[in-house]
Amino acid sequence: MSMAADMNVTLRLPMRTLFEGRAERIGAVAPNGAFGILPNHIDFVTAIVPSVLTLRLEDGSEEIFGLDEGLLVKKGHEVVVIALRGVRGDDLGTLQDTVEANFIQMDEDERQARSALSRLEADMVRRFAELQRPLS
């Protein structure tokens, strides 16, 4: 592997890509604590816990993301982070409010979807039970 000054980073959620670009440094939190990754770091895979992920971009600016649990994979100069939920923040002060608002809405949407699925399953079971009844 050649020496590189940056990494290609992709942050993916189940339904969309949250970020795709180049970064000089990544800061994340695994179950055993916070860690950093530089471009020539050894390849590895780790779980990530609900936390803040930071990226220092090529231009020196910093991006911050509030992420739910997920997985980080580094291979060569590619880093892919997959999380259940995530939001991009402008600064740490407003990130918590953004996370709370978005995650609460997502939880409500998930609750409604589970409720609708339960009703569909119950209706299907009821219809199968009706099919098994002998005709009189």
From TrEMBL:
Q: Does the keyword Cell membrane apply?
A: yes
Q: List localization entries.
A: Cell membrane; Endomembrane system
Q: Name one GO molecular function term.
A: proton-transporting ATP synthase activity, rotational mechanism
Which family is it part of? Belongs to the ATPase epsilon chain family.
Q: What is the lineage of its organism?
A: Bacteria, Pseudomonadati, Pseudomonadota, Alphaproteobacteria, Rhodobacterales
Q: Which parts of the sequence belong to the ATP synthase F1 complex delta/epsilon subunit N-terminal domain?
A: 7-83
What name does the UniProt record give this protein? ATP synthase epsilon chain
Query: Does Oxidoreductase appear among the keywords?
Result: no
The way it spans or sits in the membrane comes to:
Peripheral membrane protein
Function summary? Produces ATP from ADP in the presence of a proton gradient across the membrane.
State the GO CC annotations.
Answer: endomembrane system; plasma membrane; proton-transporting ATP synthase complex
